[in-house]
Specification:
This protein is mainly β. The chain is built from one helix and seven strands, in the order βββββββα. A hairpin with a 6-residue loop joins strand 4 and strand 5.
């Protein structure tokens, strides 16, 4: 059994440690590997738009930031509601703005 497997169709998680500054982990999903950073409500002072639901992520709301784990992927960084991130693969193509 994979110690990083979360089950339920969710991605497997690999801690990154100090190899990538500010990144908590890399998650392995059917749509690829993603750098993921958790943002506390206290660390958020801007309004973002979640690509999963097209709703605002208001300042002070905990959420996450993700980007593809390939060279240049940091240019595709997006802020997501945590639930929208977890459920994006189930929605299928065309249901997410990302």
């Amino acid at each position: 059994m994979d110690p990083f497997d979360r089950g339920g169709g969710r991605g497997a998680v690999r801690p990154v440690g100090g190899s990538v500054p500010g990144v908590d982990q890399v998650e392995e999903w059917p749509d690829g590997d993603w750098h993921v950073r958790r943002v506390s409500g206290a660390g958020s002072d801007k309004v973002y738009r979640c690509p999963g639901c097209d709703q605002e992520i208001r300042p002070g709301l905990p959420h996450l930031v993700s980007w593809p784990a390939w060279a240049g992927g940091e240019n595709e960084r997006r802020h997501w509601h945590t639930a929208c991130w977890r459920n994006r693969v189930r929605r299928g193509p065309g249901r997410s703005r990302y």
